[in-house]
Every structure is written in structure tokens, then in C-alpha cells.
Amino acid sequence: MSISETVEVTGHLMDSGILSRILDDIREYGGDYVIDRFDVGHDAADVSRATITVTAEDDESLQRLLMRLQTRGVNQVDPGEASVVEADMDGVFPDGFYSTTNLATRIRLDGRWYDVENPEMDCGLIVEQDGGSVRVYTLPMSDVRTGMKVVCGASGIKVSVPVIEKGSDAFGFMESDVSSEKPQAVLVRQVADGMREAKAAGKKVLWVGGPGVVHTGAAPAMVQLVKAGFVDVLFAGNALATHDIESSLYGTSLGIDLAMGRGVEHGHEHHIRALNTIRKAGSIRAAVDSGVLTSGIMHALVTQDKRFVLVGSVRDDGPLPDVYTDVIEGQRAMRAELKDVGFCLMVATMLHSVATGNLLPASIPLVCVDINPATVTKLADRGSSQAKGIVTDVGLFLEQLALELVPDYRRS
Amino acid sequence: MSISETVEVTGHLMDSGILSRILDDIREYGGDYVIDRFDVGHDAADVSRATITVTAEDDESLQRLLMRLQTRGVNQVDPGEASVVEADMDGVFPDGFYSTTNLATRIRLDGRWYDVENPEMDCGLIVEQDGGSVRVYTLPMSDVRTGMKVVCGASGIKVSVPVIEKGSDAFGFMESDVSSEKPQAVLVRQVADGMREAKAAGKKVLWVGGPGVVHTGAAPAMVQLVKAGFVDVLFAGNALATHDIESSLYGTSLGIDLAMGRGVEHGHEHHIRALNTIRKAGSIRAAVDSGVLTSGIMHALVTQDKRFVLVGSVRDDGPLPDVYTDVIEGQRAMRAELKDVGFCLMVATMLHSVATGNLLPASIPLVCVDINPATVTKLADRGSSQAKGIVTDVGLFLEQLALELVPDYRRS
Amino acid sequence: MSISETVEVTGHLMDSGILSRILDDIREYGGDYVIDRFDVGHDAADVSRATITVTAEDDESLQRLLMRLQTRGVNQVDPGEASVVEADMDGVFPDGFYSTTNLATRIRLDGRWYDVENPEMDCGLIVEQDGGSVRVYTLPMSDVRTGMKVVCGASGIKVSVPVIEKGSDAFGFMESDVSSEKPQAVLVRQVADGMREAKAAGKKVLWVGGPGVVHTGAAPAMVQLVKAGFVDVLFAGNALATHDIESSLYGTSLGIDLAMGRGVEHGHEHHIRALNTIRKAGSIRAAVDSGVLTSGIMHALVTQDKRFVLVGSVRDDGPLPDVYTDVIEGQRAMRAELKDVGFCLMVATMLHSVATGNLLPASIPLVCVDINPATVTKLADRGSSQAKGIVTDVGLFLEQLALELVPDYRRS
Amino acid sequence: MSISETVEVTGHLMDSGILSRILDDIREYGGDYVIDRFDVGHDAADVSRATITVTAEDDESLQRLLMRLQTRGVNQVDPGEASVVEADMDGVFPDGFYSTTNLATRIRLDGRWYDVENPEMDCGLIVEQDGGSVRVYTLPMSDVRTGMKVVCGASGIKVSVPVIEKGSDAFGFMESDVSSEKPQAVLVRQVADGMREAKAAGKKVLWVGGPGVVHTGAAPAMVQLVKAGFVDVLFAGNALATHDIESSLYGTSLGIDLAMGRGVEHGHEHHIRALNTIRKAGSIRAAVDSGVLTSGIMHALVTQDKRFVLVGSVRDDGPLPDVYTDVIEGQRAMRAELKDVGFCLMVATMLHSVATGNLLPASIPLVCVDINPATVTKLADRGSSQAKGIVTDVGLFLEQLALELVPDYRRS
């Protein structure tokens, strides 16, 4: 016995290789397919449309396959109505809950379509009805509470893939793969353009950074970028902030004497003392206000009234008083800063880049810069398909970016 | 004006290059030195002893330099008495607190020497006097409370470097550097010997693992090693446990179909559903007891009554109900499992390896295995000088390790 | 003004993403296209066929685009007759020469189709007519001589892509990407199967190796594989052979004391002396015959009457007397050994792997094993589309491979 | 039975860790030692001197150990007279030949000391006596001819380690290790200083480059550096030159469309056609003279009358007519350009960097820049102890270097 559903997908299906991936998914999930119809654009500019009947062993398998296909932008031809089940435990979704994509999503309830407020992947969809008004929003598993209405199965749900204009796209250059063999100066310029466009559109620029920003000597460049208005929010961990502060207080960063360009193995004594100093002050802002902290990235963010969210990890010393030690609370604090973000730059951190990639909707352009190809690859592998990777030196990249974006930028 | 102190260090000073590093440290901290006396062993087996007068600008600089030198095993010739100051804030050490090494440490109070109970680096030293009895122990910054007595400055403190027998040492092979160009089969055998020796001495074997253990297909080998008694404690994150459980429930691990050897990009739908299933059960043990979870690494640990500590990170989905979401609480839970650990193997995780390296005393042999040289280098750079690195494939390494340690081991 | 040609391509076009790459190529070369017809298979097993009209600015651009598309298996619907021009300089092709792919190729002359004898990419096609008999073969640029007849333009040429059976293929597991996160034990087994199949079909197994084979301690495993008949030909450089011989004569390999598992920085004194010893003997075989060389990989190849081709590089010391110091002569010697090769394993060398990848026809299965992902990626980027990559430890990989292939294999 | 010799070494023995390495060497070669005397400098600025009696099993072992120790700058206290043996075969040194270091070397014959003309490692020392005049020079193994007088054993030979001023050295910053975590902008400035100093001293700047220079878009920066006089000689392979020429002729480099910043998989058709074009012209200079080649790095070298040596490898297509296809002849051509070189920069090539490192005397400052840490590490491991490594992005590095060195440099 088997069960089928007819789905459709529209777009530059062949150009983008998306159709191959859809058929791969069907096989991966043990399903089968018949291509009912395939309207191919005749010209390069035309859009293709495919209608496919997918078959699975049973309804549960089919529903899961349909959810999987939605991550590719595949919708049911006749989606029907969304099905809603009440959660009966805190922190646990009902069986068969709909697992979200990071695409723009709508659901149909009682014949009407509702937009999902905040696309985020790997969440559930919660329906709130209050009189005539209906809200649908994503919620992570840990935040669901007994009695909440959770969408189950794949019925009644449509997703939309962000349309990327072939050729005209500022990020067309990075279409293919992660590579260290690309004209890097061109890439810098295009990232600068992306930031300028976001600011011009009234959007915020989100940075996600690791301690490598400080180690590679890029802190002065980043400070200038903060002052020039190109850093609205910073997501980071205890390490970036502590090394930045350590560098400001003692002129070192975990053993790098930046002024002299001399490296030492490790200098944890400076590190741990910098942490104690800020803990004594009470917070980074308090340390700035009291004149203890007078330079660096964190100082610039505070004095320029920019936002930052620091989330801890198990390897942290200290940590700084501003750090969320509970990672789930940290994720909530990050989510709260995502509104109006129009561009995201991730620099020199795998942990916080993957964490941010998990939270961002697919519609936000995202560039990941790291000297380690694995970081960029990992990000893409986790499903942040909008992620573009640049494998390059973080220090020189930010130096060049400041040269592009900050008028009269000179290293002092 | 300047201030001086005479220090001494003993050991295979020239063989090990330790003297160069000591002199480098003095320069790094802006100090100066005169070598007062240097008794060099005439024969290869002899021990050298150096007496050095170090000079710094002022007392604060000198104290900090002396603390730094203690990480190399350098002690003051006339250490005097330890100085103790009461903490006047929760979570903050007094200025000038002694920042610990991970070496065996003693402090002198009122003319008597006391052993520090639990060496751990980057902590403070707390003195507790109760009637005639005196305890001295390390405490991380976040756990200090107002009124606790904290050792300040470098006086009255002696450290001892673990003696490594040249040549006879099981880990002599790894003396030099991280390298992928070493005879790997020999290394596997020597790690196996290290584990056997620890078990023979009644000690525990601690594993620190990342999800790569599951992705590389090494879970069956690790299950056999658990059953054979070579895994007493596992430190990991949400990822290893979830991918292991996902693999057990659905035969996949973030997109790797292990049975078929086929990879997919990502399969978060399985991932998120596995998390929901265990959250519904209440805990990993509950899922084993109720028959939901019937195989894999976590199943083996539960059924063999072994310990595990899972500490979360900001990129986690779910997480599993067993995961510490507060990283500081997670560190405390890890510390609580360190007693009687006699060998530590770190596999395929940078985050949890560095975290564990921060907690372990220098006396515990520690081997870090990763295909990424950066992970191993990072660990060594952080000051875990006892860390030995093997750059190799995790899957094949654990397969070979099981062949060495598990009688009649065959992959099924 | 512009000029057009109608082309066609057949196969699992959407599954394999080949169609997207074809359309990308057309854009890369500044051309345009109209898809005239696209017959999509309804079922997963069906083959698709596309007919496309491609347009370019002028005939030269069109011819070059058509040559480019042939690397994807795209042929002209009406290929017409091949056009032949005489070379008028030694070592130089006529303008507009057809640049070959590594696919099975036929050309049409006077209405008849002829098979190209030895597909190899980046060569020219030479036509030899002797009475009624016609030969067509590939020839590298440096070997062309005045008066030879060289095919020009893309007319009259058809290529065939090797058919890879979906699912049933032994190498299906590696379909997707280079990855270090794959179940390695499964991969080893499948490489073993590939070698067994080649031998069962009466084909030769070609190895391409770098010095890492010796450094990782895998020489004993490789020696056993030679003796068991799974190494028919070895392509390598001066380094693998010298380190192997050095290890045999002195127990070291560029500073690795294999017996003790101890590493040193470099030990060029052994290295240079080993080279002198073999040069004095006259050749590797002479050194074996005279009892100077009594163990190791090269010894095994000589005593088992297996073939090897050593080609030098600019960094070589010595070199060994058997090494081709002229790289073009070295390439000729490699080509001469390709007949009847049915499987190729490349281990721990980028230079010789890329060199061999350049020479091999697309029909020969090829697996590249290296701990460095860049090596594997580079090979694939160069157009060896049949190349499958395994990022793993070479030492443990060959150890496992010997366990699979050599009855009663035990490390001595 | 055993045999001994007394040796001495002078310098900052403890600072530099050199003494530990000497003692390691003795153990590696199975020898033993007694430290007879060790005069340690009291102050940081003082030089130490050690006198050591080394013992080996027999004379051959001792001689080889003494040669090994000379690579560390260790000389015999009483070196005696050099022993000379006639070669009795072409291309083969006599048994027991002295294997050279890359240090400044003198030998004693008939009571007089003679400077070795051209220090190069892994060579033999040839003595030529013509009447009263005596020459001593290094010669690679392949160039020795029957009847030449070759120095054997370690007697009568002294080497001198180049003195590196602590702290004042322009390259002090790179003293420690290969690292990607260093302030890159500082490093660029210091490399620029090194080049300026060499030019000011009337010395030549040698570049060694790989195709990554072109792929990363750095060719325009390098062209400006050629024109500004900071590139006197280029050592490279067929690939750099061909990709540069391909980029000039077709605007691509192995699939990188530099103008648009778009990457493609591979574009060998352009590549092979560029080779044919230059082969037709006869040489790169002929192609420049005839107006075929009008831009790029090779064009700049030709029009600025700078030198280049291109040496081929087994993976080459073509190759260009200027390429030495015989690698031993290529090495000779490289040697011929080393006179008066005062600074060497190696960029994005492992093969040619190691080759050049083999030829250079230890006295020439050498910086190796690559995004791949393995390249830099490999170079250092091979014995080029004067090599300093910078792990960074080649494209951005050269862009910054041009900003430092070329007045009014702007990217067009």
C-alpha cells in the first residue's frame, strides 16, 4: 500500500539545480515520483514549472517527505487546510508537528491564508486565535507550552523561495562554491555594496564575530566601521568581548602583543584579570561609564549606542557580566534583535555563525568570512542556503572593508 | 626604580626547551633577568637547575610575572608566606588575586605548607580555616562569594611540574608537534596502552566527543568500547547525543545515511523530531527504560551505568532534556566527574575539548584526536601542555582502537 | 549578427544537475539559448533528452562554446563532417584546433564514424590515413609535428558520457561532495570492492602515491597489497621512492623514526645518502638485485614484477636514477602504462594525482584519498569528473584496505 | 667500543631552544653526550657557549652525527683537516661524502681555511686546485663528475649561523610559529620594510609564485610592484605564467572570470588555447614583441627587463616554450639567478617554494605567504630555518603590499 500527493514548484529549476535536489530528497526519504508535467522556459529568462506526484509508503512518511520538500520551496497543488493539535506537555510538540523552514510561509485555516510572522527553521508553528484575529508564528521547541495550538502535518502550508535575480544580483559572484581562489578585492567591494544597500533601505546590519577579529589585528578597522554606522548589532561570545577588552586594558589578546606584532603561546593571566575587572565594574557599559574601558570594539558599541548580544559557551572563563550563560535565553535575546536586519556579516566564528544561521529567515543576505573553509562549508550544510562564503584572511578583509566604507580611513 | 626576586627551576631544562620559554616570558612581561647560577647535568640523564634573578618595574608587575612563571614550574627560592584577602563582592576576586596554573600546587600559611585540593587553571585559590584544619582549593571566578579568603600575589606558593620520563614514556612519541605525518597505527596502539594502564591503576577513562564520532560511522566501535569498560565518563554537547539518537531512531545523522554510506546535505527534519521524542520521554534514561531508544552510544552508556555530562551551546536545537543549558552549571557538572580520572581522550570536538582542557589538572594524560589540525593546535595553545595531538580520521581511529581494546571485535 | 547551432543531450539530466551546468556554460561563454524540446522521463528510472539551440556572436565563439559543451556530453544534432587542417609547426596546433575531453569520442570523416583510440583531455585529435585505413587519436600539444592532420572546430565530433547506474553503483556513496564526515569504514570496503571488480575483469589497478604513504606508516600495508596483486602500476615522484628506500636503509623517512613512532624535524642527511646509494647501484632494480635494497614498497614492486613510473619535480634531491627528470617524457611514460587500467587509487599526492587525472579517460573509476580536502577538491575542479574523494587519514585507510583485501593480514 | 669528539656551539643557546635541538639530534642518531662546560650569559644580552663531548658507536656514525650537528651551527673544537676523495662515477658522490648545510661554511686544507662559494644544502663540497689557487664550492649530486675532489667526513669544516639580533630584527614578529592569528596589517608593513632594505642595499628581490596569485585577483597589484622595481626575479611554474597569459588574452584564469568576480568549475579550453598561442609565437618575449601579449605579470616582467625562470612539472599542459621541462636543468637555471638576492618572497606555491628553499643560503631572509598553513609548515620542516610564514589571503596581502610600496597605488 502507498499514498500519493501532487506537488508543484516554480522557478529557474534547471539553472539552479533545484530539481535534482528535490528528486534526491524523494529518494532519500524512500519515496517515489512521477513527473506529471514540466513546462520549461524556452529562453534563459523564463521560469520553469514542474508538477510531480510523490508517493510514500504511508501517511506519516508522506507528511514528513512533504515537509522536507518544503525546504526546497515545493508546495502541494491542493494544500487543503492546516491541521492544528494542542500541545499536551511543556517544551514538547505534538507528534507529527510541522517542522518549519526558514522561508516565507503562509498557512490556511478555515479557508483563509495567514502569513507566518517570523520565519525560522526547525521550529513549530503556533496558531493563536483571539476573537476574529489570528496570529501564526514560529516557536522553538523549548518554548512551547501546554495548550498551545501547534500545526501538524504538511497540509495547508505554502512557502515561497526568495527570488534571486540571475546576473543582476550583487552576490551573483558567489553563486557557486566556497573558494579561496577568487578575486578577493572584488568580493570586498561587493560586501560593502550589500551593506550600503541595507542601510539605504533603512535596514540594520548584523555582525556575528569571533575572537579572530581581535587576534588578526582587525579591531581598529571594526571600531571605525562601528563609528561609520555599519555595525548596528553584534552577536558574539565571551571570547571576542574579553579579548577586545584585554587588548584595550593590557595591549594583548590571548598572547598576541598587537603593537609589536609578537606572538606568545598564551597569556591567560591577562585574560582572567580583564574578566575580573569588568565583573567588578558590573557590566561593560558600567566599565565604559566609569572610565575603566576606554577603547576597542565593545567600547565603540557602547559609546555609539549600538546593540550587542553575548552568549556564553562551555569553554568560557569568567564570563563577562553581560554574557548570557543560559544558551536558550541567549537564543531568545538574539531573536529579539533580528527585526529589521537587512544584511548579516559573519566573521571568524563557527559557533555563533551557525547559531545565527539557524535563526535568520532565508530572505536576509548573509556573508560568512573565515580563513577556515570548514566554517563556511558547515554553515551552508546546515541549511542556510542564502549563506555566501568567502575564504580569506579576516584581518586584511576588514581592513579593506573599512577602506571601502569609511571615508578617509587610515590605520593610526 | 625596579624590584627583584630570585627564582629557581629544576628539570631537563635544555632538553625540553623550557628555559627558553621562561626567558621569553620574562621579556613578554617587560621584565629583565640575570642568571645567577646554572648547574647543568653532565650526562643526558642528569637534571639541571637554574637560579635566576628576575626584575620588574614595580611590585604589581613583578607579582604578575612571578605568577606567569609558575605556569612553567618556576618557584621563588624564598617564597615566604601566602597573602590572603577577603573577597568583597560575589563573583569577583580581590585585585591582585593569584591566578592558578593546572600544576600540583602548595601554599604556605603560618609556616606550614598545604596542598591545593583540585588544581585547575585560571581560578583563584580559596583558603578555608575551620578550627585547626585548613583547606585550600581552586575556585572559578563566578563561584567566589563575599567573605571568602582569596590568595593574592605570588608569595608563599609552590608548583610542581609532572615528571615525564624521557624515552620510557608511553607518549614520548608525541613529544614534538601536531602532525598528520606520523605512523598512525603506532599511535593507536599507544593510546590503547594509555587506557589500559589507567584502568589497571583503578582510574577512570574520560571521553570528550563531538558529533563527528557519529558522522564518521564510529558509533558502533564506541559502543563496543563502552561495553568493554573503556568509557567511564563522556563529556559532550547536545549534538553528539542527538545525532546518535537520531541515527538510532531513523538510521541517519544530520543527513548521513550510515547504512548505505550515502550523504545528503542536511536532514534537520529527522533531527528535530528525534529531539522532540526524547523530550517527550523526559530524559535519555527514560527513553531507554521505556524502550523508545534501543541502540547507540547514549543507550550503551545508560545500560552500562556509565556517566555523561551534556552541556549546551548557542547553536543547539531542542535541546535534549539532559543538556545543561547554563554553561556555568555545565562546567560545575563536569568538574564533579573529574575525580579519579586517569586518562582523557578527546575526539572530534574543539568546543568541549578546550572546555575540558581548562578543567583538567596537568597530571592527567590527555590525547586529542581530530582530522582538523587547528583543533589540536588550539588545545595546546590554550595551555593544556599535557595535551598530545593526533591528526587523523576519527572514524578509522576509533575502529582501530576497538580492534586493539575489544576482544574479538568485528564490525557487524 | 549572431550564429546558432542545435545541440542535444541525453541522460538523467535533472538528477545529476548536468542541465544547470550546461546552461551555466552557455552564459559563461557569452552565448544564449532556447530550449526547443525537453522530454522528461516520467519515472525516476527514465532518461531525459533536451534539444537546445545555442547562439553565439560569431563562428569562432560558437565553435569554442560547442567544444566546451562537449565536456558535458552535449553533441550537435547534425554534427556534419569533421574538418582537418595540417599542422605547420612542430609542437603547435593549427588555430581553431579541437580541444579534447576525456570522454569516449567519435569523429565523422567522409560520412563514416571513427572511434578515437585513447581519450585524454586537453589534447588535439590527429587523423592518420594510410590507404583505406583511418586512425584517429589524441595527441598532446608538445608532440604534434608539422604535417600532421589535426581536427579543427567542433563539427563532426560526438562524445559519450559514461553511464553511471543510479543506486547500483559501487561509488554511489560518494556521489555528492568531498567530505570528511562520512562513515569511513564503509568507504574502505567499497574501494576494496572496486579493486576486486577491476581484477576480476582482467584489468589493472593503478596507484598514484605521495610520500605521505611512507610518513604515515602505511608502507607495510602497501607492501602486502602489492604482494596480494592489488598494485599493478605505481605512478609517483622521487619523494615516495626515496623515503621508502631511506626507510628501508636507515629506518627513517625524512625525520620519522617509524619503529619508535618518534618524529624529528628533518633528517636530510639520511635522505641524501639514500639517494647516493641507489645512484651508485645504477637503478632501483639493480639495488634490489645486488642485495642493497631488501624491503619496502619499491622492493616489493621490483620483486613482484610490477610496473612503476617515477617522474621528477623541481624540488627533488638526487634524484633516483629511475626518475624521469624531463616531465614531458615522464608524461609519455605514464601514458604508456594506461592500457587496461580498470581502477585508479590516488593517495596522498596532489601533484601526481592531478597529472594522472589529466591523462585518464573518464571511463576509469578513480578514487582520491587525502587528509587534505584541498587535494581532492583540486582534482575534481580540474575536470576529472569521475574522481571521487575521500578525506581521511592515509595511514589508517591503507591499513584498513589491507585488512579488507589481504587474507590473514596482520601488521608484523 | 665507541668513539668521541668534542664540539662547541656559541649563541643565544637557551633563548632560541637550539641547545635542546642539538641534544635531540644526538639522541636521534643513537649517540650520547657529556656537557663539559656551559658558560651561560648572565644578562639577557650575553651569548652562551657550550662545549660538549659527543660519543657514537663507530667512526661512520660519529661522522654522520657531526654532519647533522653542523646544520645547527655546531663545530668541532679541533676540526683538523678536511679529507678529500675523488669521485669515481658521474652523478655519484664517494661514500661518506660531506652533506652540506645552507650555512656559511669554511673548510681547512693544508692548514688554511677556504670559504665555500655558494652555500646550499644537501649538496657535496668540491675542491678545485689550480696551481696555487683553491676553490671550494657546493655541487648537487647529479652534477658531480668522475675525478672531481669531494670532501668526505666532517673533519676540517666550520659553519656559521647567521646572527639574528633579538628584538631589533624586522622579522622578530614572526619568531615563533606559523599562525593565522596575527595582526596581518603589521606583517604586510614589515615585509615591505624587508624589501625596501634589500633594494637600499643594492640587492635583488626574488619572488616565487604560484597560480593563486592570478586566481585571487592579485595580478594587477603584482604588475605595479614589478613596475615599481620590487620584483627582480620570478621563479614559477607553467601554471602561473599560463593563467596570467590566459587572463590577459581571454579575461579568465582557469575558470575565474576576474572582471565579474564569477567563478566557473574549469575552463581548460581557454587554457590550452593560450598555451598554443604562445607556443606559436615562439616565446613569451616574442609574444610581447609581436603585440600578441599586451598585459599581465609576464608582460610586465618582459617590458621591465626583469628575469624569470619557469620550471615545469608533471601536471603541466603545453607547456609554454619558456618552461624548462627538465627539472634538473630548471634547478640549474634557478641557481644561476641567486647571486645578489637579498630578500625572497614566496607566494601561493608549495612546489616552487620548497624547491627554492632547497637552493637558498640561510643568510637570505625569506617570507612564505599562503592561505594554507601546510605550505608554510612544510617549508620550515624541510630545513629552511630562515623561513618565516604568514598564513593569509594572497590576494589581499599583495593588494596591501602594493599600497605600502607603490606610490599612489590604486586599483584601476
UniProtKB/TrEMBL annotation, chains A, B, C, D:
Residue intervals of the Arginine dihydrolase ArgZ/ArgE-like C-terminal second subdomain domain: 190-401
Domain LOR/SDH bifunctional enzyme conserved: 5-102
Cofactor requirement: NAD(+)
Pfam families: ArgZ-like_C_1st, ArgZ-like_C_2nd, Saccharop_dh_N
Species per Swiss-Prot/TrEMBL record: Nocardioides gansuensis
Descriptive protein name: ornithine cyclodeaminase
MF annotations from Gene Ontology: nucleotide binding; ornithine cyclodeaminase activity
Group of enzyme by EC: lyase
Every Arginine dihydrolase ArgZ/ArgE-like C-terminal first subdomain domain range: 105-188
E.C. code: 4.3.1.12
Keyword Amino-acid biosynthesis applies: no
Keywords tagged on the record: Lyase, NAD, Nucleotide-binding
CDD domains found in the cross-reference section: SDH_N_domain
UniProt keyword Cell wall biogenesis/degradation, yes or no: no
